[in-house]
Amino acid sequence: MELEHKFSSFDAVVSVTDDLVIEGYASRFGDADQGGDTVQPGAYAASLASGRGVKMLWQHDVTQPIGVWDDLREDTHGLWVKGRLLDGVARAKEAAALIRAGAIDGLSIGYRTRRAVKNAGGGRTLMELELWEVSLVTFPMLPSARVAAKGDAPDADWRDLAAVFRDARLEMAGLRPGPNPLSER
Predict the structure, then answer these.
(1) Which end of the chain, N or C, is more open, meaning fewer C-beta atoms within 10 Å of its C-beta?
(2) What region holds the Prohead serine protease domain (predicted)?
(3) Which residues, other chains included, contact 14 with Cβ-Cβ below 8 Å and sequence gap of 6+?
(4) Its pTM surpasses 0.85
């Protein structure tokens, strides 16, 4: 069987904490990706229960692990991941800088399909997947699967999330100046 990849992009302003922790949804249930595939709830259950480690890679390159996933779990929305970029890995430091700058905004899963059905209109419904890795990537395929901004975690205080959207709305309306990229030169 061939290893497949699904790309996801960040859906919020992305932050990386000083200790290089990243978190977000690597996959969202029921959302069709650009290839027309959707993942069903429970698709990752057997793989996660197996205890086999899921790798954190840079751009699906097996020669470039950049961190570790400390928490992978299914919830009602999808596959939630939380991990650490490793400070002693040069590419991980670069990845953190790129995330902070907004240059990298995608997650992608690498997996083998164990059980799926073809949909009449194209694409597949993925019912069981063997998850191998979750990568930070440049070009995402599933727009709704994202690395979360601080406060977007499933257990986060929704008031913090509302504040993020309020601030973004004010900035877009020109009522609040955004960061000046020239001021850091």
Answers:
(1) C
(2) 18-149
(3) 99, 100, 102, 105, 146, 147, 148, 149
(4) no
**Residue ranges in the chain assigned as alpha helix (H):** 45-49, 90-101, 158-172
Round to whole Å and give the CA distance between 52 and 83: 16
Phi, psi of 93 (to 5 degrees): -65, -40
More confident call, 11 vs 134: 134
User: How much is the average pLDDT of 20-45?
Assistant: 93
Name the token pair of 39: 């993942």
**What is the phi-psi region of residue 9: left when phi exceeds 0, alpha when psi lies from -120 to 50, beta otherwise?**
beta
Question: What residues does each domain of the chain span?
Answer: 4-154
CATH number belonging to domain 4-154? 3.20.16
Q: Report the C-alpha gap between 72 and 95 in whole angstroms.
A: 20
Read off the pLDDT of residues 55-94 as tens digits, 9 standing for 90 and up.
999 999 999 999 999 999 999 999 999 999 999 999 999 9
> Hey, which residues does 6 pair with through a beta bridge?
109
Helices and strands per DSSP (H, E), number in the chain: 3, 8
